[in-house]
TrEMBL record:
Cellular component, GO, one term: ATP-binding cassette (ABC) transporter complex
UniProt name for this protein: Cobalt transport protein CbiM
Keywords: Cell membrane, Cobalamin biosynthesis, Cobalt, Cobalt transport, Ion transport, Membrane, Transmembrane, Transmembrane helix, Transport
Membrane topology: Multi-pass membrane protein
Subcellular location, record wording: Cell inner membrane; Cell membrane
Transmembrane intervals: 28-47, 59-76, 96-119, 126-145, 157-184, 196-222
Organism in which the protein naturally occurs: Atlanticothrix silvestris CENA357
Length: 246
């Protein structure tokens, strides 16, 4: 992971024109609006992370892993059409593990580091990027996971759908943000949204499927090597049994 992170910092110099809305691209009014919307989630996320780490300090390493997973995946920019690029988001795993509020902090910090280190995104557009990737995506992942577990009880399918659909929703929200800021002269918001969403969909649908599969692979690894932490989070069956024995 260290070699990959070094490559991303040093080698990835192409400007991003995708889910990470670039610096200065949004009008000031919309940039401020999305900052105001995102900040309450960040504050609540800090409280959530504080509770998690105080109650179970041994989960700090798993929190760091969730953040690193998001950083690496969301930094893998892949060419799209009309000069844009697409990338996975990596927020589904952390949302399932720690909840969407915790991921609002981890995801925002990832976006901040990428803006500063990779010129990927920006500071003025951080609020908008955080809302789409660190807030909307994780909330979608969490509720999709909960719904699928309630409907089917099949955990791997639930994790796959949570990661893949959260990835897609992130790009839908970004398309909404761009369409609101730049409505088309003919057709307004709807025409603009169709244009932005259509550009992203070409590459993002297969990327979302790939992210879902990769997240399931990482989940399998966590089950094999960190079962105690997953038990603490009540994500595997061993947790209720250990409670009965205490």
């Amino acid at each position: 992971m260290g070699v990959l992170s070094f490559y991303l910092v040093v080698g990835a110099t192409t400007p991003a024109y995708a889910m990470h809305i670039m610096e200065g691209y949004l009008p000031a009014s919309w940039a401020i609006f999305w900052w105001i919307v995102a900040l309450p989630f960040f504050v609540l996320g800090l409280r959530s992370l504080t509770k998690i780490t105080q109650a179970n300090p041994e989960l700090k390493l798993l929190l760091a892993l969730a953040g690193a997973f998001t950083f690496v995946l969301s930094a893998l920019k892949m060419p799209s059409v009309t000069g844009s690029c697409s990338h996975p988001t990596g927020t589904g795993l952390g949302a399932v593990l720690f909840g969407p509020l915790a991921m609002s902090v981890l995801g925002t910090l990832v976006l901040l580091f990428q803006a500063l280190l990779l010129a990927h995104g920006g500071l003025t557009t951080l609020g908008a990027n955080a809302f789409s990737m660190a807030i909307a995506g994780p909330f979608a992942a969490y509720w999709i996971y909960q719904l699928m577990m309630w409907l089917s009880g099949k955990q791997r399918i639930a994790i796959f759908l949570a990661a893949a659909l959260a990835d897609l929703l992130t790009y839908v929200i970004t398309s909404v943000q761009l369409a609101l800021a730049f409505p088309a002269p003919v057709g307004g918001f709807i025409a603009s949204f169709a244009k932005f969403a259509g550009i992203f969909a070409i590459t993002q649908v297969p990327l979302a499927i790939s992210e879902g599969l990769l997240t399931v692979l990482v989940w399998n690894w966590l089950q094999s090597y960190t079962p105690q932490e997953l038990e603490l989070l009540k994500l595997i069956k061993g947790e209720p049994q250990s409670n009965e024995s205490v």
